[in-house]
Specification:
- With 238 residues, the chain is an alpha/beta fold.
- The protein has a single domain (2-230), classed as Rossmann fold, CATH 3.40.50.300.
- Helices cover 32% and strands 26% of the residues.
- It has nine helices and ten strands.
- The chain has helices at 42-49, 95-102, 110-120, 122-125, 137-149, 167-182, 194-200, 218-222, 226-230; strands at 2-12, 17-27, 31-35, 57-62, 65-66, 80-83, 155-159, 186-190, 203-208, 211-217.
- A six-stranded mixed sheet has the order 6-7-8-3-9-10, with helices on both faces. It has a four-stranded antiparallel sheet with strand order 2-1-4-5, covered by helices on one side.
- The relative contact order is 0.18.
- The model has no long low-confidence stretch (mean pLDDT 93).
- The protein binds adenosine-5'-triphosphate and magnesium ion.
Length: 238
Amino acid sequence: MPVLTAENVTAGYGRTPIINDISLSVDAGAVTTIIGPNGAGKSTFAKTVVGILRATNGRITLGDQDITRMPPHQMPRHGLVYVPQNDNVFKTLTVRENLDVGGYASKGDTAARMEYVLSIFKDLSKATEKRAGNLSGGQQNLLAIARALMVEPTVIVLDEPTAGLSPAYTDVVWNQIEGIAQTGTGVLVVEQNVERALKHATFVHIFVAGSNHVHGTAADIASLDLAAIFLGRAGADH
Ligand SMILES: Nc1ncnc2c1ncn2[C@@H]1O[C@H](COP(=O)(O)OP(=O)(O)OP(=O)(O)O)[C@@H](O)[C@H]1O
Ligand SMILES: [Mg+2]
């Protein structure tokens, strides 16, 4: 069942649209990935979904609520959280303090939620009093994800959560992402690495030049000529 739906979404930074007429939905308990070449508009779409950029056309729905014009700071309270690619933790705060900040919009018991989140993120549970800036890059990404989970989201949007990480740590992060989906949360991940996107996702969207004409199950997408599609030579009629 879709927990997040984008219908015909157009957005950009100035007057010129960067993404055009994007329609996509995220199911509860499943991982949906967005792949595509640099500059295709993947991050622009992620920012539009979470309200950082305003859609100039189209509609974004979370559950049965229209969130197209909702300001970004209200999104977590409604169950939609976002983990940006960079600057995703407060470096001078400790791990515990970062999680506390993440829980600000939580309706429930923050202490209990923190205990739960730390029980999943074992690496972090051993470093609660460490400053985030002193963690490894991979641990910082995990902390950013953990912090987003403090509000028990119905949908989490992650922009390249494994960029720059070693293959071993990429496995760790992806295991956590799959675990989040298994709890019933809808997961939308922008992933630069096509192999990873196909391995871990249920559903895949390919963005090329601001459009997402090609999408399907990971198995469907794996059978396509992705190089040609990335170069804009095929797939426009899928
Ligand atoms: N803040 C901004 N102001 C103006 N244009 C921008 C801004 N950020 C991105 N763009 C432009 O929007 C287009 C899409 O960028 P976006 O970051 O969404 O692509 P992407 O698919 O996430 O690429 P990457 O794989 O490199 O992360 C690019 O042409 C980029 O130059
Ligand atoms: Mg990007």
